Sequence to fold (379 residues):
Amino acid sequence: MMESFERFGLIINDTIVRTPVALASMAGIVDADYVLARAPHVGAAFIGGYSIDDTTMEAARAIAGAGDRKEFLYDDPVPELTNQMNKMKGSDVVLGLNLRGSTPGAFGAIAEALGDSVVYEIDAHCRQKPMIDAGCGEFFLTHPQELCNVVRTLKGAGVTVSVKMRAGVAADDRLLAKKLWGAGADILHVDLMDFGIAKLRQIRNSCPLMLIANNSITSFDAAKEMFSHGADLVSLARKADTRTLAGLDAAITRYTDEQGWYNSPKQLCRGGDIRALTFCCMPVKDCPLIPTLKRTGMTKEEFLALKMSAAKNTQLEGGQHTCFGSLVWCCKMSSPCMFRDMTIQQEGLTSKEYMRLKRELSETIMSRVFHDVPHDDAG
Ligand SMILES: Cc1cc2nc3c(=O)[nH]c(=O)nc-3n(C[C@H](O)[C@H](O)[C@H](O)COP(=O)(O)O)c2cc1C
Ligand code: SF4
Ligand code: SF4
Fold:
């Protein structure tokens, strides 16, 4: 697993994630057996959705009874979920439970019963009417205060929290992302619907949480688009067959072993997200860097000092023959440049190591940009 950590640097719930490909839940379908059949090709899986209180279990029965959708049905969620978790013991797939509950108390109780070995994913996604009427699924997206109450309750139980949401339902996805960050969520698992990378970038630029991008990501090209606009993982539901998953896993691994940073952003002026500040020039011209810095609340001088101090005594410091006298201002490896390449060579770096250093620099920049956690206006 150390090899995976060196390759992707991904940790969820204190566990190394083998590959940034996850399984997204499908009620009545995605359970432990389903995951185990695909385990060699995925790094994380969200089983469910499982209903966890009388109100949502009743809603699940109503949905299943209507005939066109499957649901997981049982009388008591604790033994059912314990059984699923036991089946997953020994697997290296990081497990999440996609849960439908109608009160914060229901989520708190299930977390107390099942413990912290799994990720708790709040289903704020389901648009089936009985679930919305039960006060969960999409209901949460139009009632963010209720959703934040659930996040807070789960965090109070000391567990890792993911929120599965559908883009374009909340009044403002950026604001929702910030609120969820303030309430303590760890992961946003976003069904991007038809909004694609523009929406992903907005969310990436609003919070530092781990992002899982979802919806129709069935090819390496689609996954790469998501990674280069802010996704930490991609997830699949409908087309999560072993052939598609194996192909994705292999292509992402191959790309990373060649390039060094699997989810490196596009340059800012090519539509990259905020992590792309790591590839930005010195702030000396009129370009997209200036409004971006303004949005982050950082002055040009602060940005300059931040990058220079982060590069100090690292191999990014040198580079007198580059445009701005240091590799810290240099472009992404995919932009051809003989001056940068010459410097990299002189520094004894490989292009992959250069990208790794740029990744570390982007993490430093992100910590500065998202230094102040938004005030959590708990009711
Ligand atoms: C039959 C079916 C059941 C689903 N059930 C759930 C669910 O219980 N909880 C949830 O968060 N999302 C659920 N989803 C949404 C998927 O996890 C996913 O967000 C959506 O299908 C888009 O991803 P895809 O294009 O990879 O399928 C379901 C989707 C389908 C098709
Ligand atoms: S600073 Fe350079 S890389 Fe960044 S947006 Fe401006 S021109 Fe593009
Ligand atoms: S030297 Fe090359 S890589 Fe560095 S900033 Fe100039 S153009 Fe970009």
User: Anything to note?
Assistant: The mean pLDDT is 96. The longest strand covers residues 44-51. The radius of gyration is 22 Å. The chain is about 45% helix and 15% strand.
